[in-house]
Amino acid sequence: MEMTDLKTKMGHYYNTSAAYYSKLSKETPTDFEDYFSLIDQFGKTGRLLEIGCGTGLSSYLLSQKGYQTVGIDISEMFLKELKNKERPNLKLEVGDACDLYQFEDNSFDLVCMNGVIEHVPEVEKALKEMSRVVRSEGIIIVTSPNLLSPFSPIKFILRKVFFGTSIKTPFFDSVGGAALAVLKRMVAIVKKRFSQDPEFSLRNPEFDAGGDFDAVWQSNAIDLEKYFKRMGFEVLHLSYSHGGRFEKLLVKLFPRTAGAIAMVVRKK
Ligand SMILES: C[S@@+](CC[C@H](N)C(=O)[O-])C[C@H]1O[C@@H](n2cnc3c(N)ncnc32)[C@H](O)[C@@H]1O
After folding, report:
1. pLDDT tens figures, 19-78
2. Distance between CA 134 and CA 104 in Å, rounded?
3. Which end is more exposed in the chain, N or C (fewer Cβ atoms within 10 Å of the end residue's Cβ)?
4. CATH hierarchy code of domain 3-147+202-267
5. 79: Cβ below 6 Å to ligand 1?
6. Which residues are bridge partners to 48 per DSSP?
7. 203 vs 1, 80, 139, 158, 175, CA distance in Å?
8. The whole model's pTM is what?
9. Distance 116 CA to ligand 1 centre (A)
10. Is the CB of 27 under 6 A from ligand 1?
11. Does residue 116 register a pLDDT over 90?
């Protein structure tokens, strides 16, 4: 699919999908615990831009933490709900991650997005814009599923073999497929670790199917890390794991294999 077609399709989807709107409307503060723990750890007070703020609940909660918060989202449909939440230190508006023309260079202390970057076809444009609007010594936080993690296909295999149940995912639907996915992902991780340039590989999204079906590229920690390093950022944090103790230990040793990207970078 052409980039412009994909962009139009994504924009249309977020502006019209009642199912997506309903899903976002059901979110509660506990849904943001991991994301907020990064913000609490690495953020200070100051001016914060949240990109892809959905129904605005997370932006509202961030403003309650004392941040002078601006939340933007590409969906006008979601914005209807956002407007009810505006406060003196919370501004909410329609905006595109790939073109933050309304914001000046170096104008935010913290720029963050939660579960958004995997839905943005022009990844590099978005990362460039985020890098532009954050101030020197400021922080960018990006969370996303890691679609190169071998843990999800491994979990699929274990569940299928030991409990006969399966997880719905767009990437594999059988034990053989999941085993192949583990192998392919490990090879891709090794290749990416040895290659110079970030490579954001696009995929065809499937809408309203839930999970990671609507991701438009194979989001992963390695390409994001490479991009930010190239832009002169210092990487402070890479990922987190929602798995058990053994998985957490493995993720400590191999952070780029974790199921969730939790990238925190500082502009030098
Ligand atoms: C999975 S939702 C996450 C929403 C919110 N961050 C949360 O954690 O609940 C993805 C959000 O990204 C928004 N989005 C997608 N592409 C965007 C873009 N290019 N610029 C701004 N927002 C975008 C969608 O409209 C949607 O609200």
Report:
1. 889 989 899 999 999 999 999 999 988 999 999 999 999 999 999 999 999 999 999 888
2. 9
3. C
4. 3.40.50.150
5. no
6. 69, 110
7. 9, 30, 29, 26, 22
8. 0.95
9. 5
10. yes
11. yes
Supply the residue whose CA is at minimum distance from atom 8 of ligand 1: 114
| CB-based burial, 158-191: b 16+ in 10 Å, e otherwise | eeeeeeeeeeebbbbeebeebeebbeebeebbee
CA 54–ligand 1 middle distance (angstroms): 5
Name the residue ranges covered by the structural domains of the chain.
Answer: 3-147+202-267
Q: Is the CB of 99 under 6 A from ligand 1?
A: no
Q: Could you give the CA distance from residue 178 to residue 173 in angstroms, rounded to a whole number?
A: 7
Q: Is the CB of 7 under 6 A from ligand 1?
A: no
Residue with tokens 């590229």: 217
Query: Is the C-beta atom of 120 inside 6 A of ligand 1?
Result: yes
Ligand 1, residues 7, 27, 73: which to mutate, most atoms within 8 A of Cβ?
A: 73
Q: At 75, list the tokens.
A: 């969906």
